[in-house]
Description:
This protein has 4 helices and 2 strands; from the N terminus they run H-H-E-H-E-H.
Amino acid sequence: xxxxxxxxxxxxxxxxxxxxxxxxxxxxxxxxxxxxxxxxxxxxxxxxxxxxxxxxxxxxxxxxxxxxxxxxxxxxxxxxxxxxxxxxxxxxxxxxxxxxxxxxxxxxxx
Length: 110
């Protein structure tokens, strides 16, 4: 199989969550984070049904990092791992604890 033998065994599912990309629909006013997490878990269950022998790893970017982490917390038995990058950090720079930690670090003051 060559240099990328393991990656060649993977099935990639790229999901445009409800309200984005190809699934760009007007979201209901009462939609919640739990609704998005449940949609994520529903997709994972369908993938597991179609490909029962495959591991499921979630790769989440930005808002997807929140969904992947919450889905893993709610249904760890369905997920083999999570890779999250570009995490959403709500009001990070408004947190006094964050600012104190940064000021005490070796990072330049600027």
